[in-house]
Write a structure and sequence with these properties.
Largest sheet: 5 strands, antiparallel
Distance between the termini: 54 Å
Structural class: alpha+beta
CATH class of the largest domain: Mainly Beta
Mean pLDDT: 76
Keywords: DNA damage, DNA repair, Repeat, WD repeat
Protein name: Anaphase-promoting complex subunit 4 WD40 domain-containing protein
Organism: Globisporangium ultimum (strain ATCC 200006 / CBS 805.95 / DAOM BR144) (Pythium ultimum)
Number of strands: 32
Number of domains: 3
Length: 559
Amino acid sequence: MAAPSMRRRSSGFAHVYDRSVGLSARAFRDAVHTEEVRCLAPVSRDFIYKPDAKVWTMELDPVDERYLLVGTANSNILLYDLKMLDDNGSHMDTLTKISSSSTRRAYDTSNLLPPCCAVRARSTVTSSTSSGERSSLQYGITAVDWYPVDGGIFVSSSFDEHVKVWDGGVFQVVSEFDLHAKVYCAKFSRIASAHSLVAAVTAKGEVRLCDMAIESSIHSLFGHSDEIWSLAWSLDNEYQLSTGSRDGQVRMWDIRRSGSTACLLCLNHEGHAMVPGRSSVRTNIHRLPPTSLAAAAKPPPSRKRRRLLDGHTNNNTHHLNQESRMEREQKRTATNNQQGKRNDPHAAASVAFVTAHLGGVNSLAYTPDGRFLLSSGNDQKLRLWNSKTGEHAFMNYEGIKNQIAKRNVQMAVIQEGDAYDSTLVFHPNGHDGQLRAYSVFGDHGTPLTSYTAHYKQITACVYRKAYRELYTGGEDGIIMKWRPTALELCPEDGSSDSGEQQAALHGTTIGAADTRIVGAADGDVDAWSDDDADEQVDDNDPGDIFIPPILRQYQEGRH
């Protein structure tokens, strides 16, 4: 395991100085939280490890952010209580304390955290083996999601073609939707207040909307021509969602519409989004009535046989003419109906020839403010889109290595305080368990941090906002916990590099001709001469000790 690329935090006195010079409480909090999420590092203890589990999907409960749902490749659904990790915790034991010469890390697995609940979601479909026995098929759990209104309900999707709604209190299925195709993802809308629909994407290229109230799939959105791998509900409009497919398309939908009108935009990596056109569900070619192979191979009757048949039918000519007129009228009516349906936009599918990626799109995520959409594809690109217009923002993120996974992969988008400075994306990078953090709106696309804390590829990332913690799950069975690095009250002694890093972090320089206090403003320069250094300094004189104003007020208040 590669040593982490270390990112140091500013000193504690820098925060005290910022607060003492009048920085507002909210701005101060946002600045501290932003710096913490920029300095997340994996812990070496108090993480979750289950050797036989390949984690495919994870989700935190939206109410308390305490319970973590985990779906695995072997059809297991696990529930972990993160409070047990919080109570155990060695909060400052992070991998950033490892020496830079260390290349491997032996994790502490002596105290494994057991799940609160575990259930195997077995498929009801059976198959016959070569020996004639019938065995139950098992498929991986592709997505889990909590119901945002009630933390006691969650939904799961699987390759067994089912979407299941679970009672979280007893871990039992309360309703089930058979979609007759592989289900790659199923999600609730986080901001929905007028509906409780579950959106599911399938291998048939359909977006299915399932209603828990009537336990039925009520609506389908057509337009994708290949498997749909990823799904994300808008965080700005409860009726809009985005999907990404195997052929590189990313589409934005309005679930209140139908047919070709449901697809609002098709994203284009070359710039402006495209409003999709309309294609008929039915073909324009006249279809003959179905017939059997034997009837098609039968030779036509002979001339004599036809004369006999004609003579036999002359008696019923008037009756046959009436029937033929009725049949022609019925065919004319059916043709008009089909032509009307072809011209009806609500009975047609949308079609477009633009792509957002040159490979399959296996990850979609909105920024927390809902203004932008991030997409990651198998073409090793991470792209940023305007969620209102669908326009490509042309942001370049260097070093993206998207795993070639033919299913949904979760990346985490974090926003603390100001949107421009604090919006970060944590992206699973490659097959070696690497995680990279990027500034979504940064001027440069270089990664802020790059860690390798897993032995195999990372498949899911979730952010615990109340604690500023990140959890990543991988196919090595590890669910890693990431915390901010330790806060130092003052820089380390005897390390010139540390002082330069601290000064660079605050935009100050350290040199012989210009000596500044770390964290001080531009005008606060300590002017001194060589003659002052020769004077005898009394260490017991409190006037020679720098005390920040906020601490000075605290001391005066105590006296």
